[in-house]
Write a structure and sequence with these properties.
Layout (H helix, E strand, L loop, with lengths): L18 H17 L3 E2 L5 E3 H7 L5 H6 L2 E3 L10 E4 L4 H10 L9 E11 L11 E10 L4 H18 L5 E6 L5 H13 L8 H9 L13 H6 L9 H17 L3 E3 L11 E8 L6 E7 L3 H4 L7 E7 H10 L12 E5 L4 H16 L4 E3 L6 H10 L4 E5 L1 H6 L1 E6 L2 E7 L3 H10 L1
Parallel strand pairs: 1-5, 7-8, 12-13, 12-14
Antiparallel strand pairs: 2-4, 3-4, 5-6, 6-11, 7-9, 9-10, 10-11, 14-15, 15-16
Helix pairs in contact: 1-5, 5-9
The structure holds histidyl-adenosine monophosphate (HAM).
Length: 428
């Protein structure tokens, strides 16, 4: 086996065979996002590391362990900034919202991003890559619970339109900056006497990011998690009312949600509503999201409520395949043009006709490399083209072509009428 250079571990090529899945998701997501009034935004792949460090948070796996960041080359004054490959989309979008004064626009500002690459130095495994792509929506400048329900409803509509079944919608409220510190103290008081028997990661979480204690997957800690005080029982009145309204509106969107009191999410910026959709196994997160009312302030802006989600496109593709859902196929080649003998005149006439067909919007192809007529016809048949057009000396001299179609007798069509024949025939 020759030793080729290979893609890095956790990074994947997206080959042409996979593209119909991507297009299916992209077209469905765009159509639904636009239906709900969202407009596309693209932000740079690289940001100053502080954008993520301050918002996603120190002590989170994403920032502490998984972020690709490095010092850029110093400028003339010798200053260098630490920059990061984007591990997630929200912080950059909020940075752009502030930078471009979008708070002066009509609120909420509703934005979406599509097939955006994200980088996390995660342990690669099925459905977990070091580069993955997200479709995401962010709504900024509105705290109305109707927006929370709309986000979840929008996502659910995308899954429905993709034909996915048995999708679980898990929701929770983690309160706001008033109620959360009180709950965290209660949680820590509960864990303190149990800490010795916790896994090593939990011992670190206890100090760095106590909410994530609830997210531990180690068997030894499951009973502790099940008996832990639940954050929804400690919400302040305003957060309680907000969450009750979200649930009422979700019923109006017809979303079959479940309450998951242990859902806390792995990013620090969340407040109040959080949600995650999973597949039937309830193990793989297809998307995650929530409200982040304090994020804009962390980035130096005015207090600006916000809510959004990120959907992992690779995970959706895996789920489509698991459920045997095939995306619409790419349109096949419609016409294949072949020349009977290897002469310059016939080849020129073929290139000319293929160019004209393509300019007329007809998907046409030809054989390259001066192959024999037999070899060209072999290609024509493997391309599944509906029509084969043949040009020989006789055709060239007398200004016509021969058109063959499976199970139909070959016809001679005037050279000047080929396009009309193909398009007209197609419209019949
Ligand atoms: P997240 O939960 O970290 O949230 O990622 C969103 C989704 O991206 C996940 O549910 C999963 O489908 C996919 N994903 C994450 N990491 C990987 C990976 N290593 N390989 C494959 N897929 C992955 C966020 O990123 C937030 N910015 C979402 C958000 C937007 N919250 C508010 N607005």
């Amino acid at each position: 086996m020759p030793e080729y250079m290979r893609a890095l571990q956790g990074f994947k090529d997206i080959l042409p065979e996979e593209q119909p899945y991507w297009r299916f998701i992209e077209e469905t997501a765009t159509q639904v996002a636009q239906l709900y009034g969202y407009r596309r935004i693209e932000t740079p792949l690289i940001e100053e590391t502080a954008v993520f460090r301050k918002t996603v948070g120190e002590g989170t796996d994403i920032v502490d362990r998984e972020m690709y960041n490095f010092d850029d080359k110093p400028d003339k004054e010798g200053h260098s900034i630490n920059i990061a490959l984007r591990p997630e989309g929200t912080a950059g979008v909020v940075r752009a919202y502030l930078e471009h004064g979008m708070s002066r626009h009509q609120l909420p500002v509703k934005l979406y991003y599509l097939s955006v690459p994200m980088f996390r130095r995660d342990r690669p495994q099925a459905g977990r890559y070091r580069e993955h792509h997200q479709f995401g929506c962010e709504a900024l400048g509105e705290s109305d619970p109707a927006i929370d329900a709309e986000m979840i409803g929008l996502l659910y509509q995308i899954y429905t339109q993709l034909g996915l079944k048995h999708i679980r919608v898990n929701i929770n409220s983690i309160g706001d900056s008033n109620s959360r510190p009180k709950y965290i103290n209660i949680l820590k008081a509960y864990y303190e006497p149990l800490l010795d028997s916790c896994c090593n990661d939990c011992k670190v979480r206890f100090h760095k990011n106590p909410l994530r204690l609830l997210d531990c997957k180690e068997p030894q800690d499951q009973e502790k998690i099940a008996n832990a005080p639940k954050i929804v029982d400690y919400l302040d009145e305003a957060s309680k009312e907000h969450f009750a309204a979200v649930k009422r509106y979700l019923d109006m969107y017809g979303v079959p949600y479940s309450m998951d009191p242990l859902l806390v999410r792995g990013l620090d910026y969340y407040t109040r509503t959080v949600f995650e959709f999973t597949n039937e196994s309830n193990k793989t997160a297809l998307n995650g999201g929530g409200r982040y009312d304090g994020l804009a302030e962390i980035l130096g802006g005015e207090a600006t409520p916000g809510i959004g989600f990120g959907m992992g496109m690779e995970r959706i593709i895996l789920e489509l395949k698991r459920q045997s859902i095939t995306p619409p196929a790419e349109p096949p080649t419609q016409v294949f043009v072949a020349y009977l003998a290897r002469t310059t005149e016939l080849k020129d006439a073929t290139v000319q006709l293929v160019a004209e067909l393509r300019h007329a919007g007809i998907k046409a192809d030809m054989g390259y490399g001066d192959r024999s007529f037999k070899a060209q016809m072999k290609r024509a048949s493997s391309s599944n083209a509906e029509y084969a057009i043949i040009i020989g000396e006789n055709e060239l001299t007398n200004g016509f072509v021969t058109i063959r179609r499976a199970e139909v007798e070959a016809v001679e069509v005037k050279r000047s009428e080929v396009i009309a024949y193909i398009t007209g025939d197609d419209e019949k």
